[in-house]
Structure formats: structure tokens, C-alpha cells
Design a protein that fits this description.
By secondary structure, the protein is mainly alpha-helical. It has 3 domains: 16-100, Fumarase C, Chain B, domain 1; 108-183 and 236-275 and 288-356, Up-down Bundle (Fumarase C, Chain A, domain 2), CATH 1.20.200; 359-430, no CATH class. The protein contains 17 helices and 4 strands. The chain has a two-stranded antiparallel ribbon with strand order 1-2. The chain has a two-stranded antiparallel sheet with strand order 3-4. Helix 15 crosses helix 17 (419-430).
Length: 431
């Protein structure tokens, strides 16, 4: 539909896989999965729930009657209870035991963690894909000398492959953080209205061991080992902040890469893929704008700033529960996942087709070679007995004078006929 707002993430940027993870159907289907797990665990621990009731719940897990749920929500103004009643309308025998002992956060918070966990695993998979592509690139260009840049000024030589290793290193640090967060993400479990599990203690006639076992049973059924040992009605919102921080970390790495690519494109040393019929500018037909890298920069900025949202939410929760987290959390977490997914889709595309221009790289190396050679000259002169500080000052004065001539008169820093002599001199000193 073109007459209502549509998120750019769903229309232009994010992958089908990530959109499915955060789709309404996935959420509500997970709610029903959680209600089934709760009923199964309660039955196994001795409550009067039958296999027939559980089988009925399983039969209707996926065929969600959305129209009825939406109609009930208009009347009740409560999304969880509208789905409890809609589910009950399909499960005549089981409707009396759906959501037994639970509060809304049982389905809401646990579903969020299940979805975030799936999203983090997809993000990690895509980060590893970028690392693999950049590794092949680094191997291919490991011996191609290029100017290094410090302060965006020509510095000592690196290689094109070594520079790619800087991008890889950032991503490897992200993988370490992703592994930590994935391994330590915690379900809420079933903690009740204030985290005391009082409703479940009542159901199990004060049997504390059964209440503890209920938490672990539900987690096992959902494929989790970690549960929040202490909570209010919700899990600590610090967990959301931790998750968005690692997403921000991935965005930071991609941002650095995209900025480097944009600068290299300006230098004409390297550039992102550019399609045969791609248009760089509607006005300047010659333009080859690095639009993919620019899009990474733009989306990464959004994620980095967005990381402040759960930090503030975690800071401002009142006692056992307050609802000012809900609307914010409903937006900032899924959209951060969608944005990072979008970033990594573009990053993978660029990493798979980086274009290198060796002749331009060589030309720039040759132009700066006399200045780079001064460090070799300084080291050799000191080895032969010179005073490092005195020599440094003499070389600095001569270098600044030469630089002024280049800038004012546009003269090259070196004549090509002088290059063999300089290289020979450096080679003799090194030997």
C-alpha cells in the first residue's frame, strides 16, 4: 500500500530472515509455544492438566485467529489477554488452563529473549561471512604495498591486505562479544507479578522445589539453560542494554570500514562495486558515488545512537515493574536488529567485490617515497653514530622545505629517474 507509512527496513534494507524473526506471527506463535510449555511443565509437576488439553493447545498453535484477538483487544485494551481468550475460543477443553499462574511478562519477556537470541545468531552468521570475504581479499592483496595514513596524511607503507586485516580485527572483537551475549542471554522464566512466584507457590501448595523446577523445565522445553535467578515482574532491562550494545559494536566496526572505503574511493585507490548501469548522480554523469558505504555509515549512526534507549530504560525502571519501557522497547530493539542486519547485508556485498587500482596505489607510493625514506635514513645514520635528535631536526627542516615547494609550485616530490638511486641506497643500508 502506498498511502500509509512503511518502514524502510521492511521495504528496502533488512533481510527476509530478520524480518520474519520480528514479525507479528512469529511473536504470537511464540506466545502460544510458551503457553504450551507452561501447561506441560505444570502437568509434569502434578497439576490437574490432561494430555487432551495439551494436545488441543498444540493443534492450534500456528493457526492464530487474529481477527478475534484484535476484536477482543479493542474491548479489553490488553494484548495478552486478547490472545489468551482468542486461543481459548479455539481450545474449548484447554481454555481454563491457558496462562495458568502467569502474568503478561511470562509471554512478553520470554518471547523477546527468544527472538533476540535468534536475531543475535543471525547477526553472528553474517559477521562471520564478512570476515571470510575480507580474509580472502587480504590474502589476495597481502603483498601489494600501499601508503598508510595517519591523521589522513601519508605515512609509512602498509599493504592493501594488511589494511583489510584492521577491518577483520574489529569484527573478530565483535564475534567475541556476540558469543558472550549469546551464551549468557537469560529467559525471565515464570516469576509472577512481582518476581516472588507467589501464584505458583499457591498452585503447588507451597512446594518451593516444584516452583524452582517449573522455571528450569520451561527453559529446557524452549532450548535455554540460563534463567534470570532474581527479577521483578520483568527481567532486568540491563539485558536489553547489553544486547543493543553488542549490536552497536558491530555497527561501529562497519562504520569504520565504510568511512575507509569512502576515503579510498576519493583517492581512487579502491572502491566498492559499481554496476554497469548504475547512476552515481542525476546531475553529474561521471560520478561514482560510494553509495553502499554511505548507507552503512547512515544506518550505523542510527544504531549507535539508538543504544542509548535501553540504557535509559534500564536506569529508570521503578521497583518491580513500570510500563514506560514497553513502547520504547517495542521499537528500539527490533529496529536495531533490522538496522544491523541491513548493514551486514551491504557489508557482505561490498566485501565480495572490492575493486583495487594497483597503478594508482603505486603512483601515490612513488610520489611519497622520498619522505618515507627519511625514516630509513634516520635509523641508518644513528646506527653509524649520529645523534638521533639532531638528525631528526635536520631531516624535519629539509622535509618541510621540500613540502612547501611541492604545495606552492605543484612540483612532484620525486623524479622517476631518481627512484632507483633512492631504492638502491636504502637497500645498501638495510644490508
Amino acid at each position: 500500500m502506498r498511502d500509509i507509512y512503511e518502514s524502510p527496513f521492511s521495504k528496502r534494507y533488512a533481510s527476509k530472515e530478520m524480518l520474519e524473526i520480528f514479525s507479528p506471527h512469529k511473536k504470537f506463535k511464540t506466545w502460544r509455544t510458551l503457553w504450551i510449555a507452561l501447561a506441560e511443565a505444570e502437568k509434569e509437576l502434578g497439576l490437574g492438566i490432561t494430555d487432551e488439553q495439551i494436545n488441543e493447545l498444540k493443534l492450534h498453535r500456528d493457526d492464530i485467529n487474529y481477527e478475534l484477538a484484535e476484536q477482543i483487544e479493542k474491548e479489553t485494551r490488553h494484548d495478552v489477554m486478547s490472545h489468551v481468550r482468542a486461543y481459548g475460543a479455539q481450545c474449548e477443553k484447554a481454555k481454563g488452563i491457558i496462562h495458568l499462574g502467569a502474568t503478561s511478562c511470562y509471554v512478553g519477556d520470554n518471547t523477546d529473549i527468544i527472538l533476540y537470541s535468534e536475531g543475535l545468531k543471525l547477526i553472528k552468521q553474517k559477521v562471520l561471512s564478512v570476515i571470510s570475504k575480507l580474509s580472502r581479499f587480504a590474502e589476495k592483496y597481502k603483498d601489494l604495498p600501499a601508503l598508510g595514513y595517519t591523521h589522513y596524511q601519508p605515512a609509512q607503507l602498509v599493504t592493501v591486505g594488511k589494511r583489510a586485516c584492521l577491518w577483520i580485527m574489529d569484527l573478530l572483537l565483535d564475534v567475541e562479544e556476540l558469543d558472550f551475549v549469546i551464551d549468557n542471554v537469560r529467559l525471565l522464566g515464570c516469576k509472577g507479578t512481582t518476581g516472588t512466584q507467589a501464584s505458583f507457590l499457591a498452585l503447588f501448595n507451597g512446594d518451593h522445589e516444584k516452583v524452582k523446577r517449573l522455571d528450569s523445565l520451561i527453559a529446557e522445553k524452549l532450548g535455554f539453560t540460563n534463567i534470570m535467578p532474581v527479577s521483578g515482574q520483568t527481567y532486568s532491562r540491563k539485558q536489553d542494554s547489553r544486547i543493543l550494545n553488542v549490536l552497536s559494536s558491530v555497527a561501529q566496526s562497519a562504520y569504520k570500514f565504510s568511512n575507509d572505503m569512502r576515503l579510498l574511493a576519493n583517492l581512487k585507490e579502491m572502491e566498492e562495486p559499481f554496476e554497469k548501469n548504475q547512476i552515481g548522480s542525476s546531475a553529474m554523469a561521471y560520478k561514482r558515488n560510494p553509495m553502499r558505504s554511505e548507507r552503512i555509515s547512515s544506518l550505523a549512526r542510527y544504531v549507535i545512537v539508538n543504544a542509548l534507549n535501553p540504557a535509559i530504560t534500564a536506569s529508570t525502571q521503578w521497583f518491580e515493574r513500570t510500563l514506560d519501557d514497553s513502547a520504547n522497547k517495542r521499537i528500539c530493539l527490533p529496529e536495531a536488529f533490522l538496522a544491523v542486519d541491513s548493514i551486514l547485508n551491504i557489508y557482505n556485498n561490498i566485501a565480495d567485490g572490492i575493486v583495487v587500482y594497483p597503478m594508482i596505489i603505486r603512483k601515490r607510493v612513488i610520489e611519497e617515497l622520498p619522505f618515507m625514506a627519511t625514516e630509513n635514513i634516520l635509523m641508518e645514520a644513528v646506527k653509524r653514530g649520529g645523534d638521533r635528535q639532531v638528525l631528526h631536526e635536520r631531516i624535519r627542516v629539509h622535509s618541510m622545505a621540500a613540502s612547501r615547494i611541492v604545495k606552492k609550485e605543484g612540483k612532484p616530490k620525486i623524479c622517476l629517474r631518481e627512484l632507483p638511486m633512492i631504492l638502491s641506497l636504502i637497500s645498501v643500508w638495510k644490508s
